[in-house]
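In response to the reviewer comment on reproducibility (Comment 2.3), we provide here a single inverse folding case reported in full, input and output, so that an independent group could reproduce the run without further information from us. The C-alpha cells appear first.
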C-alpha cells in the first residue's frame, strides 16, 4: 500500500483500536472459560486411583492449561496498554479498510450498528467524530477524487420500523444518503464528488451483523 493510501488507513486504524481491545477481552474471557473446564477434568483425574488415572493424559491437560495461562497473561498486559484514539471514540469497533489493486478503490467499511440504531437512518451522535475523521483523511489524501457511499443491510425483513421503509433496499438508500449528507455538509467533501448507492441485502457478508454496513468507497484513480 502506497504512502497516500496509508493516511486513510492510519486514520481508520485509530478508530478501530477500541474494536481490537474488545477482541482481546473476548479472547481472554474465552481462554479463562476453557481453563476452568480443563481444570475440572484435571481435578477429576487427579482424584481417580491408579491405574485408572492416566498420568500421560493428565500431564498433557496440565500443559494445555499452562499454555493458556501464558496467553492470558499476555492478553492482560496488552489490555492494560493505552489504546490510541480510545479516549475520543470509545464506542468504535469493527472499522475496516481495504484496497482493490485492480480497480484502485479504497473502501472504508463501517458497521451499521456504529452509525445507526436498528431500523433507523438517523446518524448516532457518537458516529459523527468517526465520519469527520474519515472525511478529513479523504480531503487530505484524495482531493478531487470521487466518493461513493454504499448502503447495505442484512436479509431480515424490517419489523419494528416497517412503517418507515418499503423494504431493506429503501432503508439502505436512506442510510447511504444520511452518511453522504454528513460527509458533504459537516465533513466538507465536495457534494459533486459524492454519490450514493443502495444495495439492500444483495451483497451479504458472512454474518447478519457484518452485512449491516455502510461502505465509503474512494475511487483513487
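Designed residues, in position order:
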Amino acid at each position: 500500500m502506497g504512502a497516500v493510501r496509508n493516511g486513510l488507513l492510519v486514520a481508520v486504524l485509530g478508530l478501530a483500536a477500541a474494536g481490537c481491545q474488545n477482541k482481546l477481552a473476548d479472547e481472554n474471557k474465552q481462554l479463562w472459560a476453557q481453563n476452568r473446564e480443563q481444570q475440572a477434568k484435571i481435578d477429576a483425574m487427579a482424584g481417580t486411583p491408579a491405574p485408572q488415572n492416566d498420568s500421560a493424559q493428565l500431564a498433557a491437560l496440565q500443559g494445555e492449561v499452562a499454555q493458556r495461562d501464558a496467553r492470558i497473561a499476555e492478553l492482560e498486559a496488552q489490555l492494560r496498554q493505552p489504546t490510541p484514539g480510545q479516549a475520543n471514540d470509545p464506542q468504535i469497533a469493527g472499522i475496516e479498510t481495504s484496497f482493490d489493486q485492480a480497480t484502485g478503490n479504497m473502501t472504508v467499511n463501517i458497521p451499521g450498528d456504529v452509525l445507526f440504531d436498528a431500523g433507523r437512518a438517523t446518524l448516532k451522535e457518537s458516529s459523527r467524530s468517526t465520519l469527520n475523521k474519515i472525511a478529513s483523511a479523504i480531503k487530505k489524501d484524495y482531493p478531487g477524487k470521487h466518493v461513493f457511499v454504499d448502503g447495505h443491510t442484512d436479509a431480515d425483513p424490517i419489523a419494528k420500523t416497517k412503517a418507515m421503509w418499503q423494504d431493506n433496499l429503501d432503508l439502505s438508500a436512506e442510510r447511504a444518503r444520511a452518511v453522504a449528507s454528513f460527509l458533504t455538509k459537516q465533513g466538507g467533501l465536495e457534494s459533486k464528488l459524492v454519490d450514493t448507492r443502495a444495495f439492500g441485502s444483495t451483497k451479504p457478508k458472512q454474518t447478519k451483523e457484518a452485512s449491516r454496513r455502510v461502505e465509503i468507497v474512494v475511487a483513487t484513480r
